[in-house]
Amino acid sequence: MVQVVFFDVGETLIDETRHWREWADYLGVPSFTFFTALGRILEQGRSHREVFTLFDPAFDDDAAWAERQSRGEKYLFLQTDFYPDALPCLISMNWVRSSVFRRTDLSFR
What we know:
The protein is 43% helix and 4% strand. The protein is mainly alpha-helical and 109 residues long. It has one domain (17-107).
């Protein structure tokens, strides 16, 4: 019997496009430019975090996140962020209760 299963959340269960777009907006970079740079960095096998210092060499993740939070921003996964087949799959395997995902505030950070 299967007792443990691990999922890569980002881009497996969750479409992170909205989250990345919010970072592009924060940095004042056009989304298309940001996504192009991110794709190039990933293609080269580098860490996705390098995209931030590409646009701001002095980028500080903790300071940036604190600033975003001070403006009322949260790191949330909305139900609409899940890929269409992710929730039904998890629910059908009885790994999550459907009532958990009726909330729109699934906060992580």
